[in-house]
Amino acid sequence: MADKDDVRLGKHFFEDIPSKNEAFFLKGAGALDWGMQNRLSRIFNPETGKTVMLAFDHGYFQGPTTGIERLDLNIAPLIPYSDVLMCTRGALRSSISPTVCKPIVLRASAGQSILSELSNELIAIDIQDAIRLDASALAAQVYIGAEYEHKSIGNVTKLIDMGSKYGIPTLAVTGVGEKMSRDQRYFGLATRICAEIGAHYVKSYYFEPGFEKVVAACPVPIVIAGGKKLPEKKALEMAYKAIDQGAAGVDMGRNIFQSDCPVGMIQAVGAVVHNSVKPDKAIKIYEEIKVQEKT
Ligand code: R5P
Question: How far is the CA of 107 from the centre of ligand 1 (A)?
Fold first, then answer.
């Protein structure tokens, strides 16, 4: 109960210590509100400025994808080693324990399937539900050069506006159609458009040459998707090169959950992302954990 007893005059004001006014650690996020910066600090480790997002939202357009046929069984062992869970609200409510305290990046679009035109998406969540789920960010695709380019830009723009009202950042995902070439010109265009419409960070694919130029020209952080399954060493090399060339982390799915040792792979990826461990060393982390699992 508030009372007026024992009200004393303050004594310790440390007048000789100036108040700190530190710059926020994340590229392009210095002018954001406290809530936005706090949510981005859940996603990106403030010590390293990087993130390992575990992506398992693939089912929203491709159904029971190899490696995540059983979300409840496949994802749980990986959670302790991920920084962020990226998934649909359906996966979250049905298959992830509410006792898990990892930040959630919510897949906020849907409306198509692998049997139809992929760029024909719509916003598939309202902001109240994202708040109920305590989302740390919303995510949807921008399909530059695709049939529904205009609509997809509109979706992400609306998410940015909706999220901004409540301090929830938006991740714009560069969706690449089959006809688009995965090169500097394309990703330079796509990532810059995402940042200019107000996305707080952007997901791209890694490509060579010129990835570092695309990172430099994008005023907000870029994280890379893993893409299709590669041999583990190749996936670690890709992650290493991306981080070395300025990526702020990975949003990786298939190269983790389709590995023959997902728990080893996610830890190896984490070592690359947060500690710049070289692929030769990182592959040993994966191999050692794989051996331990078998014994
Ligand atoms: C597409 O289904 C999603 O945006 C995925 O989250 C994204 O492609 C990352 O997953 P992967 O590493 O499997 O490409």
Answer: 11
| Bridge partners of residue 142, in order along the sequence | 174
Number of H helices, E strands in the chain: 12, 10
Ligand 1 atom nearest to 173, measured from its CA: 4
Options 203, 233, 278, 294, the catalytic residue: 203
**What number does the ligand 1 atom closest to the CA of 229 have?**
13
Q: What distance in angstroms lies between residue 275's CA and the mean position of ligand 1's atoms?
A: 23
Q: In this structure, which long-range contacts are made by residues 191-197, counting pairs with CB atoms below 8 Å and at least 24 apart in sequence?
A: 191/217, 191/218, 191/222, 192/217, 192/218, 193/142, 193/144, 193/153, 194/142, 194/156, 194/218, 195/28, 195/219, 195/220, 197/142, 197/153, 197/156, 197/157, 197/160, 197/172
In this predicted structure, the answer to whether residue 20 has a pLDDT above a threshold of 70 is yes
Ligand 1 pocket: which residues have CB below 6 Å? 55, 57-58, 86, 173, 225-227, 251-255
Mean pLDDT score, 220-231? 97
What's this model's pTM, rounded to 2 decimal places?
A: 0.95
Q: What is the pLDDT of residues 67-85, one digit of tens each?
A: 999 999 999 999 999 999 9
Instruction: Note if 278 is an active site residue.
Output: no
Closest CA to 250 of 105, 71, 150, 147: 105
**CA dist 201 → 91, 170, 221, 232 (Å):** 23, 7, 5, 26
